[in-house]
Amino acid sequence: MRASTLTDVGEITVEERDRPDPADDEVLVQVGACSVCMTDYHMYHGTFAAETPLVLGHEGAGTVAEVGSDVDSFSVGDRVAINPTVPCNACSYCKKGETHLCENNTSIGGAGDTILDGAFAEYVRVPAINVEDIGEMSFERAALAEPLACCVHGVEQADIKPGDSVGIIGAGPIGLLLLQAFRNAGAAPIVVSELDDERRELAADLGADAVVDPNEEDPETAIPEAAGGPVDVGAEAIGLVPTIKQANAVTAPGGLTLIFGVPDQEATMEISPFDVFFDEVDYRGSFSLTTEDFERAVTMLQHDRIDAERLITERIGLDDLPTAFERMGNAEGLKKVVIPGDGE
Fold first, then answer.
1. Which positions fall inside the Enoyl reductase (ER) domain (predicted)?
2. What is the pLDDT of residues 241-269, one digit of tens each?
3. Domains in the chain, start-ordered, CATH in brackets?
4. Is residue 153 among the annotated active site residues?
5. Catalytically annotated residue among 42, 58, 100, 153
6. pTM of the full predicted structure?
7. Which of 5, 7, 39, 257 is catalytic?
């Protein structure tokens, strides 16, 4: 089979590999589509550590090509989405359903303490408990189940109620999915701040009640003005300290600042303990997804609660990943989706 393999920092080679055999509790998935994520970008550039050689790609979907001897829940030909977060189901976190905090942090093609070969390949091995049936949903749409599940988790972390106001800083692919997840949970109004004109326009089309151009007005003033006051949830979907501070600045007393974008591991910021105490503003992180989040995300996609197709702007082959990472670094386009068969 062909696989796009990270061989060193900044180096990817498309190589021929033996088709893997599934273990007794695994399925072998013929990859139909795998979308490209900023985690892949960081691993490619070495800002997230990964031992090489390694096949990246953790937002995949495809067809079951083979099943292990102990698998009776799936059959050859089933169409599935892949949850890349592999739980041990033995630690206390897994037993509580917090599979994303598993002490034996293992990921299929994504960031983790243990990283298994991912889905930028024609085939990938996956534990049977890590796939969800997608029926006739397209593979491209199903490939967005993983990032959507992260957004579902973020909304749960924000603990919103219908009618709670939300400000979102950043309308990249994940910010636009987060916007739709908040809408599905009943948030209102939702105000989005985004530098890029096209992304800001798309945010409005996807349901933002108001959009803010930070080139033209200060989000710390404009978001509360558009929302009728400071927001119940200030969500940062970029991963930068200045924009985390913006999200906190627009959060109302008693509200919550959601750190959803992935910050640099070495980044630090100052906060006022008194302000946290006196205003009762909560800082909340949102990391990855749980098994339940993934199931919910697949269900939402199956029932057309999410406009996924408008977020997919490029379809590429296995050979095109370096160019895709370059375009991501320049914030060009939205979701890039690898179709492994394009490389044949």
1. 7-339
2. 999 999 999 999 999 999 999 998 899 99
3. 2-144+308-343 (3.90.180.10), 150-285 (3.40.50.720)
4. no
5. 42
6. 0.96
7. 39
